[in-house]
Amino acid sequence: MHYLWRAVDNEGEVLEAFVTKWRDRRAAMRFLKKTMKRYGSPKIIVTDKLRSYGAAMKVIGNEVRQETGRWLNNRAENSHQPFRRRERAMTKFRSTKSLQKFVSIHSSVHNHLNQERHLQSRQNFKLKREAGLAEWRQLAA
Description:
141 residues, alpha+beta, Nucleotidyltransferase, domain 5, two-stranded antiparallel sheet, 5 helices, 4 strands, 13% strand
């Protein structure tokens, strides 16, 4: 069994995905340090009520920025859904390495190509989808 740690911004885009064997303070610290090194220190960090987050925040010195609540973590939980659907279709993963590789690629592709179809007109959706595909092809080339 492996644990998936994900950093999601306020718009629902996946910033960072990290796979660990353990779900403890040390794993939380590694994830938080890696994410903050890449994206800077956030104003607010919303987490679930897992105690390892609090312990890691105490060590890093961000415990005043942490918020936990019953529905505050919904944006991160909802960002798991496309990944979980894909994981079920693939019938799980065999190794940590393949899982980490898939997680990092899946979040990049999903951020570029997920356009929230129900929030816009068909014409705008097609334009944004084409722009996303063109950008992805440029990145992949």
